[in-house]
Amino acid sequence: MTTQTENRAYQRDKLRAEELRSQIAYHEHRYFVLDQPEISDAQFDALMQELRAIEAAHPELITPDSPTQRVSGTPVETFGIVEHRVPLLSLANAFSGDDLRAWHRRTSGLLEREQFSMVCEPKIDGLAVALVYEGGKLTTAATRGDGMRGENITRNVRTIRSVPRALDAARLPARFEVRGEIYMTKSGFEKLNFERGEAGLPLFASPRNSAAGSVRQLDPKVTASRPLDAFLYQLGWQEGGTTPATHHEVLGWLSALGFRVNPQIRRFESIDEVVAFCEGWTGRRETLDYEIDGIVIKVDALAYQRQLGAVGREPRWAIAYKFPPTQATTKLLRIDVNVGRTGSLNPFAVLEPVKIAGATVSLATLHNEDDIRRKDIRAGDTVIVQRAGDVIPQVVGPVLSKRTGKERTFRMPKTCPACKTPVARVEGEAMYYCPNRQCPAQRFRLLEHFVGRGAMDIDGIGESLAHQLMRAGLVRDGADLYRLHEHRDELLQLERLAQKSVDRLLASIEASKQRPLAQVVFALGIRHVGGEMASLLANHFGGMQALMDASAAEISAIGGVGMTIAESVRAFFSLDENRRIIEKLRAAGVNLREESGGAREGSLSGMTFVITGHLERLSRDAAEALIKRNGGTAGSSVTKKTTYLVVGSEPGSKLAKAQQWGTEVLDEPAFVALLEDRGVALGQGRDAEDARTRAADRRDRRE
After folding, report:
1. N or C terminus of the chain: which is more exposed, having fewer CB within 10 Å?
2. Which CATH architecture has domain 87-322?
3. Which secondary structure element, helix H or strand E, spans residue 331, and what is its range?
4. Catalytic residue flag (residue 657)
C-alpha cells in the first residue's frame, strides 16, 4: 500500500521530471540550433543525469519525447532537411574509471564473453556531420539534427579542404555514408574572434560555437573564409563492396581513401588499458590545437556492435568518457583593477565562486580594457569562465541571453587605485600605467618580483612578510634587503618570525648575492625584460655598468632585441632612483658581472631544456634557475636545438611540437634523475622550504 509520504515523493518526482524535460529542451535548442549555450556542458550533463535517475526509479514517467529517449537538436528548415537512412545516435557518458569498468561489465554480460577489443578516439568538440558519396562524389552533407533528420549543409561543407569532394570511384561502394566531426582549431578561433572584435561584431564563445555558426552560413563564401577542419570516424552505411570486419579496419580503409582520421586513435584489448588511456588524456588535452571534451570508446568488432544494438537513443556498443569540465557559467559580481610591478593597471573579474576542473574559482583575468570591450563583458553579467591547462582562469565572454539591462559597462579608472596618481596609456600599447614610481602597490609588486624564482631566488619572503617589511619601514626596494642583517632585533618583532627563521632568511639573502647577472637584471623589473631577454642582455654586455651606460641604439643592435625593449631599458637606467638601487646592490656585494662574459659553465653545459606543465617538486622558475646555474639553457619554445622537453601535469602545446621535432621528452622524475646524475643539488623546492620555515617558527615559539 502506498503511503501518503510516498505519494507526495512520487508527485515531487513527477513535477521535477516535467521541469527537467522543459529545461533540457530549452538548453538543447540554444546549443544545437542557435549555437548560443547558456550553461556549461557539465551543468547540462547534471540535468540529464538527474532526469535519468528519476526515470530509472519511475519508468512509468518516461515519455516518448523525453530527451533521454531521443537525440537532441531539431533541424532548422532554412537549410533544407535530410532524412538520415541510419539514425545518428548520441552516446551514454562515463565520468570515471569505475563508470567505464561498469560499462565493460554490462557489455561483457550481453556478449557473454569477458574480453573484446575496443577502439578509443578523442571526442572532438565540434559539429557532427554525415557525408554521402555516390560514384565517388560528395552528394550530401547533413548535420546530426535530431538524429533522424538533419540540416542540409552540402554547399558549405564542400568548402572545407579536409573533406574530399571526389574519391577514386573504382575503389568504392556505389553509395556510402561516412560520419565525422567538423571543428575549428584553437588558433583559428582566437584569430577569428580577434578579427570579429576589431570589426565590432559579437564574439564566439568557444571553438565549437564558431564551427557550428560557420557551417550554418547562408553564403558558402563565409564558411570558406573560416578555419574549419574535419575528422571522419565512422562508416554509417554502404551499398555494395566488401564490409570490413572491425571498426579499426574501417578507420584504416577511410584513411587509405583520403579521409582525415584522427592520429590519436588507439585499439586496446583490456579495460585497464582503456582507463589508463582516457585518464592520461585528461592532463594532455591542451597539447592539441583543437578542443576535445572526452574519449569515445567503441567495441571494435562490427558483428558485436550489431549484436549489442541500442537502447533508447544510445548505442550499447559505445560510451563517451567525459573529462572534468574546464568551463562553467557564473555571475560576474564586479570588475576590479590591481597595479602591477611596472605600473600597469590590470583589470580582473570578481566572480560568484564556481568549481572548474576540480578547483574553486572566484577571480579571473580580463587582460585589458580593449579585450573587455571586444568581448562586451559587463559587471553583473552571467559569464562563461574557463580554466584549462596551465592558463589562469579567464572570462571567455558573456551569456547575452541572460542580460537584464542592469549590467554596468567597465571604464578604466582615471587615477591609480593605490596612489591616486593620474594614469596614462602609452600610444600603441593596450595597457594603462601609473607613472608614479613611488606608488606603494608598484613597490610591493617589485619587491615580490625581486625575491622570486628566476630573479634573486630568496626563500622565506612571501606576500605577508613582504607587506610587513614595507610597513615597518625596513625595506623600500629589493636592494634594502641586503641591509636587513643590521635590523635583526626589528625582524624578531615581526609576526611569525622567530630566531631560526630569521637566521634562514638572512642566510638566503646572503646567498643570493652570488646569483648570475642575468637574474639580477631580471630582478630589477624592467618593463618588457623577461628572463630570456635578461640573459641576452647579460651575456652581451657582461656587466651591469656596461648595460647601464649603453644607448638604445647599442641595445637594439643585439639580435633579438627590438627598439621598444631597448628604449625601455634605456629609460629605466636614466632614472636616478634606479641607479641608486644599483649602487646599493654594488655596495652590498651583489654580483654585477657575468662570469666569463658569456655562458656559464657547468654540468648541464650544451643542453637546452624547455619546461611545460606543472612540476610537483620544483616550480618552473626554480627548475629554470637550476638549469641556468649549472650551465644549461632554459628555452621558452621547442626548436630543433632543444635537447629535452620536461613535461609536468597539464602540459601545453609544446608537447606536440616536441613530438613533431623528435625531441626527447622527460617527465618530472626522469628530469630530477638526470639532474642528480649530473651532480645538481635540488633542495626540496620553495613550497617545502616555506613549510619547514613555518614549522620551525612554531617550534621556536613553543621553546
Report:
1. N
2. 2-Layer Sandwich (3.30)
3. strand 327-339
4. no
